[in-house]
């Protein structure tokens, strides 16, 4: 039997905390992880393809785990206007590597956990207590790529 919803009742469940506006997203980070020498070669190829296609800031290589990241990786920082093109491309072209994609809202701990999207295996975020709950605005990213190929 289908239960009738009383007139005037809300179909929206109660929200425990305030809704965040999308405008709080200042930028995004994609962390591309690798572990083996073979995976590092794949990560290098993906990085080169990203540089050809997107206006982003490619971060330096970390061949050992750093900060909250459980595996070696590099970071790709990008502005919200690049998200609609870059995120789907990365979904299709990560070549089996694990990727953490998160917004930067000024809440680093929540951005790396509650707001994060994982592509591939979900990894542990380590030393969570070291990530501040809040911080000032993100710096504006100046891309270090010169895209010449359409995604």
UniProtKB/TrEMBL annotation:
Pfam families from the UniProt entry: DOPA_dioxygen
Record Gene3D superfamilies: DOPA-like domains (3.30.70.1240)
Source organism, top-level taxon: Bacteria
InterPro entries: DOPA-like_sf, DOPA_dioxygen
GO MF annotation list: dioxygenase activity
UniProt keywords, alphabetically: Dioxygenase, Oxidoreductase
Annotated protein name in UniProt: Aromatic ring-cleaving dioxygenase
